[in-house]
Write a structure and sequence with these properties.
The complex is a heterodimer.
Chain A (H helix, E strand, L loop, with lengths): L5 H16 L3 H20 L3 H20 L11 H37 L17 H16 L9 H9 L1 H4 L7 H9 L6 H34 L8 H32 L17 H7 L2 H12 L9 H19 L3 H19 L1 H11 L6 H23 L3 H11 L5 H6 L8 H21 L4 H6 L3 H18 L17
Helix pairs in contact in A: 1-2, 2-6, 3-4, 3-5, 3-6, 4-5, 6-8, 9-10, 9-19, 9-21, 10-16, 10-17, 12-13, 13-14, 14-16, 16-17
Chain B lengths: L7 H27 L12 H5 L8 E5 L1 H6 L2 H8 L3 E5 L5 H11 L7 E5 L12 H9 L5 H9 L12 H5 L44 H27 L3 E6 L9 H11 L6 E5 L23 H19 L11 H16 L8
Parallel strand pairs in B: 1-2, 1-3, 3-4, 4-5
The chains are: A mainly alpha, B alpha/beta.
């Protein structure tokens, strides 16, 4: 069951109606858990068992960790706690590796053997990926570490813990929830709130707009170009346009998905973590990663970067930590070498950015560009966007060779751009190109304005006629102009496969 | 001014209901505008024309894929043998959907023969078209059969969604013309064609003996098992309703492209049912005078000219095998003569010269 479907909307309406009709917190938890497992089963079928296994490991290990004696006098975890924590994390990571990385490891191994002239091929498991496994694995690890550190009491209610992992708005692609933030909300008995409903539905509508009107249409163009980048050898601008389009696609896809997820959760009175904060307005790569996929980057910071020493270590060690964090981020996103390279490239950006700071400051002084001036803001935002987009090329390309083919050619302008733009080679017809361009402008305009104005509140303040007209027109725009259903095979949300 | 309803919660509930009703009406209207016009021959089953037929007035109902509605001409069958027939076919229609078409049709008609065009027995996941599937289910009247088809005969990711016209047809937004807003004129305006979709273009197709690639056999085996369940169910339905079932193929280019599937399916259910017969018109020579250079629309479908030739053989077979009565001259069937004349005009208007003119 995809988010962008009538069946999901009916499912959601039923889930909300029954949820608020049930009297007690216990029955509501059980209902939401049943709905969540049903939803997950429609996505992953029998692999729901994997979700249940990881949930069981997390629950049992959490209770065990809490039961172990704590040493209040020491800054370090007791040995037994470390052993239980390490074993339980190893177990959930092993499940992740079996499903996500075994086949990739086999490929790498075989490539290595081939280099040495070996003929034989090692067959490793090639299993279908349970949807969202990377998300709920990380969520489980965060929970266990928090319990082991004594920051969070272990959840005793097994159904509540299972719901914490499987809650259907976030089970497929996050945001990666934290126990301390979500578990107390799941324990509350929420009263029906008209305002909560309105705000949730409006957020979902905005998510659908970004997903169906922008991301899924740009996906057609991007796929057409990235499928065979060599066909655009005479037109670097097409490669550049496709890469910029992918930068916008992945933002609208993932932030659109997150808005739908957060909006759906809000209908139950539950707030999920924010995942995006106008990332393309960032003025540095460091800032970009504070604004992009915030729940993952927060996780990496709290459970990898800081335990490795964070910034309180030598410069070389800190750079090594940054490399480790981004390498992990890369392989978390996907199993190809392209993802690893994308992660390392972002680490390189950060390190180079820091090393070149004195040089940049000097350049600013010589050119008399004020650090806080508009020109510097615009230039640094554009530079950041270009660097991020180059990174996305590695993220999207089928192979590293394709990515290295695309990147240098993106910057070679040729007139052949118009030839491709006017044809069906880009996969979209003219009205779709115009519609998509308008929608992209709307997305960025909303991002720009929302830095200063709380747009939902602005809508709520309007007279009822204006408000209703807005809601209804917006809904119809998404329904009519969205790319979904059989007319255009709706691309799976890009992040579902992670 | 004091509000009419003082209780704010009640006011909000009423507002929500009103909002939802308004939105539902708007969505239904938008769906109706986006739905392609059914005026003229456009392919897909003309259910509204079917239900306009007098109850139990047809002797033959034809089901199947586009090969059925492109290859059999009920007006011609009527003119040749006086057999009242109607086609309820759909493009790339899966047998599982055809089963619900059949169930639905038997609510108002009790034919002597059901002719099931069998290209669909070769269908598999590889040939599945979401757009056509949405159209085939979406065109059905709102009954339990439509709901069943939308769930039981539909891939999981399309279930329920196929019931929404907006979901199925929103991709037409850039093709909308003024005519799309004239909702009253969008229904089938060519009831006299009785489900036939005559096409005027022609293309030469291969007449060399067709050799099926080995890979196709594997696809056939995987799809056959699934499709045979539906076929058995349809054969059982026919037996229970005392209806003869004819499994047939129209001529195809290349010839015999689908004969393997027809034979396999017939072999599979042979012995289980005694009401099943087979007619393969795709075998070279089965349709006298068929011209592979002029009688086809494309590589697989007959054009109007080829349909006339195939329908003649089809009508002769029906009359000879099932001893169907010739209804010509029966006062209750006078409109069928008028419809056949309208069908001729339709062909003539598009530059064709109907047989016998």
């Amino acid at each position: 069951m995809q988010f962008a479907s009538l069946s999901y909307m009916l499912f959601l309406a039923l889930a909300v109606a029954v949820y608020f009709a049930l009297p007690g917190s216990r029955s509501r938890t059980l209902w939401l858990l049943a709905a969540s497992y049903f939803f997950y089963a429609t996505l992953s079928g029998t692999w729901t068992l994997v979700l249940i296994i990881v949930t069981t490991i997390g629950y049992v290990a959490g209770r065990w960790l809490e039961a172990l004696p704590q040493d209040e006098t020491s800054l370090h975890m007791p040995r037994r706690t470390r052993a239980v924590l390490g074993t339980s994390i190893a177990l959930v990571v092993a499940v992740l590796c079996v499903f996500k990385y075994a086949a990739f490891a086999g490929d790498v191994l075989n490539s290595g053997l081939a280099l040495f002239g070996a003929d034989g091929r090692i067959q490793l498991l090639k299993l279908a990926l349970p949807i969202g496994i990377s998300f709920w694995t990380f969520q489980t690890i965060a929970y266990l570490v928090d319990v082991a550190r004594g920051k969070l009491p272990a959840e005793r209610n097994v159904s509540r813990y299972a719901l914490f992992i499987a809650f259907f708005p976030h089970v497929a692609a996050g945001p990666i929830a934290r126990g301390g933030q979500l578990l107390p909300q799941l324990a509350e008995r929420h009263t029906f709130s008209f305002e909560g409903m309105r705000s949730g539905l409006l957020l979902m509508l905005w998510g659908f707009f970004k997903k169906a009107l922008v991301a899924d249409r740009l996906a057609v163009f991007v796929a057409a170009v990235y499928k065979d980048p060599h066909a655009y050898a005479d037109s670097g601008l097409v490669l550049a346009a496709a890469s910029v389009a992918f930068a916008i696609q992945i933002y609208c896809d993932f932030s659109g998905y997150t808005d739908i997820a957060r909006g759906a959760a809000r209908l139950f009175g539950i707030d999920l973590l924010r995942n995006f904060n106008r990332p393309y307005a960032s003025r540095s790569i460091k800032e970009f990663w504070r604004r992009w996929h915030m729940s993952l980057m927060g996780w990496l910071k709290d459970y990898v970067y800081i335990p490795l020493g964070g910034s309180r270590v030598s410069r070389v060690r800190r750079y090594a930590n940054i490399i480790a964090v981004f390498a992990l981020s890369g392989i978390w996103h996907g199993t190809g070498l392209t993802f690893l390279f994308w992660g390392l490239l972002n680490a390189f950006y950060q390190i180079a950015g820091e090393l070149l700071t004195p040089l940049r400051e000097r350049a600013l002084a010589i050119s008399h560009i004020a650090r806080d001036g508009r020109l510097h803001r615009v230039l640094s935002t554009i530079t950041t966007f270009v660097l991020v987009t180059i990174g996305w090329v590695f993220f999207r390309a089928e192979t590293l060779a394709d990515a290295f083919y695309i990147v240098p050619r993106m910057f070679v302008p040729t007139a052949a751009f118009l030839k491709h733009l006017g044809s069906f080679e880009i996969g979209l017809d003219q009205p779709e190109v115009i519609l998509t361009a308008v929608c992209v402008l709307i997305v960025f305009a909303v991002d720009f304005v929302s830095a200063k104005i709380d747009l939902p509140t602005l809508v709520y303040r309007q007279p009822v006629v204006v408000r209703w007209a807005f809601y209804q027109v917006a809904t119809l725009v998404v329904l009519i102009f969205g790319a979904y259903g059989p007319s255009l095979k709706s691309a799976d949300f890009v992040y579902f496969k992670f | 001014m004091r509000p009419l309803i003082r209780d704010i919660r009640l006011r909000r509930v009423i507002a929500c209901v009103l909002f939802c009703v308004m939105l539902a009406i708007e969505v239904a209207y938008v769906g109706a505008v986006l739905k392609p016009s059914r005026a003229g021959a456009v392919g897909g089953a003309p259910w509204e024309s079917f239900f306009a037929l007098r109850e139990n007035s047809t002797d033959v109902l034809v089901f199947g894929s586009s090969h059925a509605f492109a290859g059999i001409d009920p007006a011609f069958v009527w003119r040749e043998r006086g057999i009242p027939s109607f086609i309820l076919g759909g493009p790339t229609q899966m047998q599982q959907v055809t089963e619900y078409y059949m169930r639905e049709s038997l609510r108002t008609q009790h034919p002597k023969v059901i002719a099931l065009e069998m290209v669909s027995v070769s269908y598999s996941a590889r040939t599945f078209s979401p757009s056509f599937h949405a159209m085939n289910v979406g065109l059905m009247p709102w009954t339990t059969n439509k709901l069943a088809a939308s769930w039981l005969a539909t891939p999981a990711d399309m279930r329920v969604n196929v019931l929404s016209d907006v979901w199925a047809y929103h991709g037409r937004w850039s093709d909308i013309t003024k005519a799309d807003f004239e909702l009253g004129r969008k229904d089938d305006q060519a009831a006299y064609l009785k489900g036939f979709n005559p096409t005027m273009k022609s293309r030469e197709v291969s007449s060399t003996p067709f050799v099926r690639p080995q890979s196709d056999y594997a696809v056939a085996e995987s799809g056959l098992a699934y499709n045979l369940d539906a076929l058995r169910s349809m054969a059982r339905m026919c037996a229970e309703n005392d209806v003869e079932l004819l499994l047939f193929l129209t001529p195809t280019g290349p010839p015999e492209a689908y004969s393997y599937y027809l034979t396999r399916a017939a072999e599979e259910i042979e012995g289980e049912f005694d009401n099943v017969r087979v007619l393969d018109l795709s075998v070279p020579g089965a349709v006298p005078g068929l011209d592979y250079t002029t009688d086809f629309l494309d590589g697989g479908h007959l054009n109007w000219r080829g349909a006339e030739k195939a329908s003649r053989v089809f009508a002769d077979y029906l009359a000879a095998t099932y001893a169907l009565p010739d209804r010509r001259g029966d006062a209750a069937y006078r409109s069928w003569d008028a419809d056949a004349a309208l069908r001729d005009q339709y062909i003539e208007k598009r530059g064709g010269v109907p047989s016998g003119k």
